[in-house]
Design brief:
By secondary structure, the chain is α/β, with parallel strands linked by helices. 42% of the residues lie in helices and 17% in strands. It has 4 helices and 3 strands; from the N terminus they run βαβαβαα. The protein starts with a strand and ends in a 5-residue tail after the last helix.
């Protein structure tokens, strides 16, 4: 099964929920996410929780940076210790 979540907004999460309903299972191993850009943390978490192991995206964080479309700053923030 191939999911086409569209933009990096709620459409991806909606596609994951719809696929789970259609397959009658929260496990989506074997499914592929196609996205416009590098997955943001919330989408990546949903992918891990549903066993989606493959994602294809059009642009990397580096490619999206000049257009404010990079998730790199979010990942850097999440990597910091909680005390900071």
């Amino acid at each position: 099964m191939i999911l086409f979540p569209g933009r990096l907004n709620d459409a991806g999460s909606g596609a994951i929920r719809a696929a789970s309903r259609a397959l009658g299972s929260p496990r989506l191993d074997g499914c592929v996410i196609y996205a416009s850009g590098h997955p943001r943390p919330m989408r990546l978490s949903a992918m891990h929780l549903t066993d989606i192991r493959e994602v294809t995206y059009s642009y990397s964080n580096g490619d999206g940076e000049p257009y404010s479309l990079s998730a790199a700053a979010i990942y850097a923030e999440l990597a910091r210790p909680l005390a900071e």
